[in-house]
Specification:
The chain contains 16 helices and 22 strands. The strands form four sheets. A seven-stranded parallel β-sheet has the order 8-7-6-9-10-11-12, sandwiched between helices. A hairpin with a 2-residue loop joins strand 17 and strand 18.
Length: about 525
């Protein structure tokens, strides 16, 4: 019978397992752990136990490490992956607690709870403050994922009108929640008496609520951030409060934690704070323990779902024979998702030609690459399929023989409410190459930042883009051109040292007489 060792204080719950022996040695000393770990197939920890290369080397039977909670800083993920050890966590266990805190911050900000509490403690009984009712108010939610959805249902139960902006969530999900899905962020902001953000912190969301966005909110609005510090620009929030445009704010997170004493938001009476307490409830901690043990046992049985944070290294023969095509798959997946730049409900993958072995891992690589730009916790080869299903993205993979003149060709298409996009690629000389974007044949050597533009076939179009990039200090590394299509449009791709800032992209897109579309792709 497989054996699971619990090494840190964790609430195990009442679950028992007929096929796994669970041994609880919470607080076990490091030297004792190194002696006994050889007898165990799985390990469950919190933050105390250091799961490093030395511990992994002493554990020849170890197959799974479960980490209660979200973080995995105490686990050497690279060493675990090299050893083929799956690492799991339980990020969903605190969803209810996090959602309830966001609602609590909204209510506290609306009624001046923090302001009144401080006044009473200072000996002042001030009954002059007038708060705000939230019944009938319009709540805008940015990010309708697991926590955002829970906030939506709770706000609706309090009598609020709820709408949301999330370009990567299927409309059916919003319909099931009774939430109006707004297509553009400015439109959501303009109608939100209160705003609550629930997105991961990514390149796309970093600073997404800034001066312009706050100014778009109606006068007297309330802003809540219980997601990640940095999504709401803190200096801009302080300015909007100081100007009287916003009524109040509720914050559980800061970009830098703890914030300095002189932070412009810390001492304000119209801001209520908590110290990143989203997961800190007794109930959440109990769920974390029960869920991580359950998931670890499932992984021992070979059942993988949510919570996998690494991917055990693929077998050496798979890497040797398919390695460059796995890299190509990730590039094509990331590229097609960013070309469409909106919700995707279907991802199609065609693997054409004679591959040296079963090419199925390439399809997984495509899915992983497609998801990665939109998630704060990178997907991997174990959980990419489950994450896609959770986001209502249908993935269909087909095998074909003809490769349109290439030995092997990978073609990826994405479909969503805003249209379709497709890319194709192959491996030349061991290096991935993009060979087609939509209907344009064009050979691109992938780079960390790429601008892909369709343009009117007119002299000076490419030069105008190059001039604007040069004025912005963006260096062009390479350029590739396509042939002109029957509609008179051509495509060119620029590989860049650095991604242009938003104002530069806006200036490029403003050249509507020659530029028909422009997409920035980050890899």
């Amino acid at each position: 019978m497989p054996k699971l060792l619990v090494t840190d204080a964790i609430q195990l719950g009442d679950a028992t397992f007929d096929d796994v022996e669970v041994v609880n040695r919470a607080g076990i000393a490091r030297e004792d752990l190194l002696e006994v770990i050889q007898d165990y197939d799985a390990l469950v920890t919190r933050s105390r136990t250091q799961v490093d290369a030395a511990l992994l080397d002493a554990a020849p039977r170890l197959k799974v490490v479960g980490r209660g909670g979200v973080g995995v800083d105490n686990i050497d993920l690279d060493a675990a992956s090299r050893r083929g050890v799956v690492v799991l966590n339980a990020p969903e266990a605190n969803n209810v607690s996090a959602a309830e805190l966001a609602v609590a911050l909204l209510l506290a900000a609306a009624r001046g709870v923090g302001r009144s509490d401080r006044a009473i403690r200072a000996g002042t009984w001030d009954r002059a403050f007038l708060g705000r009712e939230i019944k009938g108010a319009r709540l805008g939610i940015v990010g309708l994922g697991r926590i955002g959805s829970l906030v939506a249902t709770r706000a609706a139960a309090l009598g609020m009108e709820v709408a949301a902006y999330d370009p990567y969530i299927a409309p059916q999900r919003a319909e099931r929640l009774g939430v109006e899905l707004i297509e553009a962020l400015p439109d959501l902001l303009a109608r939100s008496d209160a705003l609550s953000v629930h997105t991961p912190l990514t390149d796309e969301t970093d600073g997404m609520i800034g001066p312009d966005e706050l100014a778009t909110l109606p006068s007297g609005a309330i802003v809540v951030n219980a997601a990640r510090g940095g999504i709401v620009q803190e200096a801009a929030l302080a300015d909007a409060l100081e100007a009287g445009h916003l009524f109040a704010a509720g914050l559980d997170v800061f970009r830098s934690e703890p914030p300095p004493a002189d932070h412009p938001l810390v001492q304000r009476d119209d801001v209520v704070h908590t110290a990143h307490l989203g997961a800190n409830t007794r109930e959440a901690q109990a769920r974390i323990g029960a869920e991580i043990v359950e998931r670890t046992v499932q992984a021992l049985r070979g059942e993988f779902g949510r919570g996998v944070v690494n991917a055990p290294a693929l077998a050496s023969d798979v890497l040797q024979e398919l390695g460059p095509y796995l890299e190509l798959g990730e590039v094509l997946g990331a590229t097609v998702g960013q070309l469409l730049a909106g919700r995707v409900h279907e991802l199609t993958i065609e693997l054409a030609g004679e591959f040296p072995r079963d090419p199925a891992p390439i399809g997984t690589a495509v899915t992983k690459g497609f998801l990665e730009p939109f998630l704060s916790d990178p997907p991997n080869y174990v959980n990419a399929g489950a994450i896609a299903r959770d986001r209502d993205v249908r993935v269909a993979t087909t095998i074909a023989t003809g490769a349109n003149g290439y030995t092997r060709l990978v073609t990826v298409g994405a479909r969503g409410p805003e249209g379709e996009a497709s890319v194709a690629g192959t491996v030349l000389g061991g290096v991935p190459r993009i060979t087609r974007v939509d209907d344009f044949a064009i050979e691109i050597k992938p780079a960390p930042a790429m601008l892909i533009c369709t343009n009117v076939d007119r002299p000076g179009a490419v030069g105008r883009v190059g001039t604007l990039l040069g004025d912005a200090g963006v260096n062009i590394v390479g350029m590739q051109l396509s042939r002109v299509g029957e509609d008179g449009l051509a495509m060119f791709a620029l590989t860049l040292d650095d991604a242009p800032e938003a104002p530069t992209l806006d200036a490029l897109r403003a050249q509507t007489d020659v530029i028909r579309s422009l997409r920035l792709v980050r890899l």
